[in-house]
Specification:
Blueprint: H1 2-28, E1 30-37, H2 41-59, E2 63-70, H3 72-80, E3 87-89, H4 93-101, H5 115-118, E4 121-130, E5 150-153, H6 159-174, H7 179-191, E6 196-197, H8 200-208, E7 215-219, H9 220-227, E8 235-238, E9 242-246, E10 250-252, H10 254-260, H11 263-272, H12 276-284, E11 288-289, H13 292-297, E12 306-308, H14 310-314, H15 317-325, H16 330-338
Parallel strand pairs: 1-2, 1-3, 5-6, 5-7, 9-12
Antiparallel strand pairs: 3-10, 4-7, 4-8, 4-9, 4-11
């Protein structure tokens, strides 16, 4: 009986040890959710793998990162309504301002917490046309010509669509047009849009797979992905004379990371986006890195293009949102006229 008692004590101690080890392992396992816009799936898949390996090497901790992608503004609304994002990596500042102003999920000064106004890379809006460019599309003016079908994402739900709309408006303003003339140009352009997809990837699918439209207006990295990939034989990129600079911002979601205890890891994840390793991945995905050395290395891949910012033409993102995309704004007026 004494032997059985010792055996029971050994087994009990073993079970306790196993449970303790299991609890420690579970504690060491950390997960993050990155809620992002819909043309960054491939980018963050590669960045996540690189960061996880680097983080484990430095800390000994295991980590998993989940991704959620969709139209940028729709994604922001999901986070506002309770989606537990540790970080958000959106394509325009308004979507993060929404989280600050309406949800108080991030502080109002979120832009100041990382370099370059918390935007680790840039891109711009360019065109994708069918091989041979049968409609001879060269610049923004061509998108408003009769008989040209233009595919863009919906500016009400997609940052991609907002950039396209503001780029066209800004192009006319750069030529000295009045606001009334820019509105007329935007109205003519949108008259040529057969369908407004909710997000940028949906617009790409409409153009490349459904065969709708003569030209797709979208981010440079999305165009490059197609123009250098399996679809290269069917499409080609066209760079307009001037376009809008896109600076996609990122931030931790303070209320979520503090609730989940993931602030340290989430901050390390966003800091990593500025590292040479992540900047190289960014460049490989046809986004323009902030790191000067990495950008110089890939200089031949990024065509020179004159750009302007939202602030230069519209004053601020808040002003652009209120004037063009709020309920009753210029976009709603144009859509109402189309009906």
């Amino acid at each position: 009986m004494a032997g059985l008692g010792r055996t029971a004590r050994w087994l009990g101690a073993g079970i306790i040890a196993i449970n303790t080890f299991g609890a420690a392992a579970a504690h060491a396992e950390t997960s993050l959710l990155n809620v992002s816009y819909d043309v960054t799936r491939e980018l963050y898949k590669d960045i996540n793998a690189s960061f996880i390996a680097d983080y484990q090497k430095k800390t000994g901790e295991t980590l998993s990162i989940k991704q959620s992608h969709g139209a940028s503004s729709a994604q922001a609304l999901s986070v506002l309504q309770g989606l537990q994002a540790d970080v958000v990596t959106m394509n325009q500042p308004n979507d993060i301002d929404l989280l600050a102003q309406q949800g108080h999920l991030v502080p109002a000064n979120w832009r100041t917490r990382l370099p370059d106004a918390s935007a680790p890379y840039t891109t711009t809006m360019v065109f994708l046309v069918r091989k041979g460019n049968p409609k001879h599309i060269k610049d923004w003016d061509d998108l408003a010509k009769p008989g040209v079908q233009v595919v863009i994402a919906n500016p009400k739900t997609s940052g991609n669509g907002r950039y396209a709309y503001l780029a066209a408006w800004g192009y006319r303003k750069q030529q000295g047009a009045s606001d009334a003339q820019a509105l007329d140009f935007e109205r003519a352009l949108l008259k040529n849009v057969p369908v407004l997809d909710a997000g940028g990837r949906g617009a790409t699918t409409t153009f490349t797979q459904r065969g709708i439209g003569d030209v797709l207006v979208t981010f440079e990295n999305e165009v490059a992905l197609i123009d250098t990939g399996v679809g290269a034989k069917d499409f080609e990129a066209v760079y307009p004379s001037v376009s809008l600079l896109a600076e996609p911002p990122v931030t931790i979601v303070d209320k979520v990371v503090d609730k989940r205890g993931t602030r340290k890891t989430a901050q390390a994840y966003l800091d990593y986006l500025y590292s040479p390793a992540a900047q190289e991945i960014i460049a490989q995905h046809h986004l323009r890195p902030r790191d000067a050395a990495v950008l110089a290395k890939h200089a031949n891949e990024f065509k020179p293009i004159k750009t302007f910012t939202v602030e230069q033409v519209f004053g601020s993102w808040q002003s652009a949102q209120a004037t063009h995309f709020a309920d009753g704004g210029t976009f709603d007026q144009i859509v109402a006229d189309r009906k």
